[in-house]
Design a protein that fits this description.
Length: 256
C-alpha cells in the first residue's frame, strides 16, 4: 500500500484557476536519486494545456510495485460524510469532472475516468478510485492523501476542518476542489514535482502561496508515459523509469 498526503494549509486561496486544483500535501518528501528521463512515447496527447514551472514529475510505480493501471476505463466514486455540505460535495465532483474532461480531450477516449457515485450499494465495489470526504480527518497533518495499491486506489481522503485550537475557518469549497484534484493525480499514477516546494504545478507544493496551481501539459504528458502500453496498443506493462522530464521539446500535436 502507498500513502501520499497533502499538508494542511493555514491560508485559503481566493481564486480558482480554470485548469486546476489541489492542496498542500504532506508525507515525507521523496528525494529522487534517479536521473531525469526523457521518455520517448509511442503517441502523444492531443491537447494543449498550460505550461507550469515543474522541472520533472516522479513516476510512482518506480517506488511502489504495482502502482500503475492495467486498464484504461477507470471509474471513481465519492463517499462523503453525512454532515458534508452540498457545496463541499459539489467541489469534489467538480474535481472528478475536470479530470474526466481533460482525459477525454487529451486521449480521445482511450483513457477515461467515469464518476459512478451512487450506482452500487457500496462505493468501494463500484469504483477503481474512491474519494472519502471526512471533514475532521488528519488534524494539522494533511489536507488530503491517497492510499493506493496494485492497480487500484480505494482510499483517497480529503478533509476540510482544522482543529478548533487553531481558530481557523474550514477550507473553502474551492480549496477542497484543489485538494481533490491533486490527490486524483496521485491515484492516476503521478508523483510530485521534483522541484516540489517551488513548483505551482498541480503536483507541486508551491501553490497557492506562489501562485495558482496549474494542471499542466507536463501532467498529461507524464500520464501518457504512465499509460504508454495503452497508447502503443500493447499488453499492459509498468511504466518506464522516471522522473519524467518536463523540459523536453514535443512535436506539434495533431488529432489521431
Amino acid at each position: 500500500m502507498t500513502l501520499h498526503g497533502l499538508m494542511a494549509s493555514a491560508g485559503i486561496a481566493a481564486a480558482l484557476s480554470m485548469s486546476v486544483a489541489a492542496a498542500r500535501e504532506t508525507t515525507t518528501v521523496m528525494r529522487e536519486v534517479a536521473p531525469v528521463t526523457r521518455a520517448k512515447q509511442p503517441a502523444l496527447p492531443t491537447c494543449s494545456l498550460p505550461v507550469s514551472n515543474a522541472e520533472a514529475l516522479v513516476i510512482l510505480s518506480n517506488y511502489y510495485p504495482g502502482y500503475w493501471w492495467d486498464h484504461t476505463n477507470l471509474t471513481i466514486a465519492l463517499q462523503s460524510h453525512p454532515r458534508a455540505t452540498d457545496a463541499q460535495i459539489r467541489a469534489i465532483h467538480n474535481a472528478i469532472a475536470t479530470w474526466s474532461e481533460v482525459l477525454l480531450e487529451c486521449f480521445d477516449g482511450l483513457i477515461t475516468l467515469t464518476d459512478v457515485t451512487g450506482t452500487q450499494p457500496s462505493e468501494q465495489k463500484a469504483a477503481d478510485i474512491v474519494v472519502h470526504f471526512v471533514p475532521k480527518a488528519g488534524g494539522v497533518v494533511f489536507g488530503g492523501y491517497a492510499i493506493c495499491g496494485a492497480h487500484g486506489c480505494p482510499n483517497i481522503l480529503v478533509r476540510s476542518d482544522l482543529p478548533p485550537s487553531l481558530d481557523r475557518d474550514p477550507y473553502s469549497p474551492e480549496y477542497i476542489e484543489w485538494v481533490a484534484l491533486h490527490e486524483i493525480g496521485h491515484a492516476l499514477g503521478l508523483g510530485h514535482t521534483t522541484n516540489l516546494l517551488e513548483s505551482t504545478d498541480l503536483m507541486g507544493y508551491g501553490w497557492p502561496s506562489l501562485g495558482d496551481p496549474v494542471l499542466s501539459q507536463c501532467d498529461i504528458d507524464a500520464l501518457a508515459y504512465v499509460f504508454a502500453w495503452a497508447l502503443e496498443g500493447s499488453a499492459p506493462h509498468e511504466p518506464g523509469p522516471g522522473p519524467y522530464d518536463c523540459g523536453g521539446t514535443r512535436p506539434a500535436r495533431t488529432k489521431r
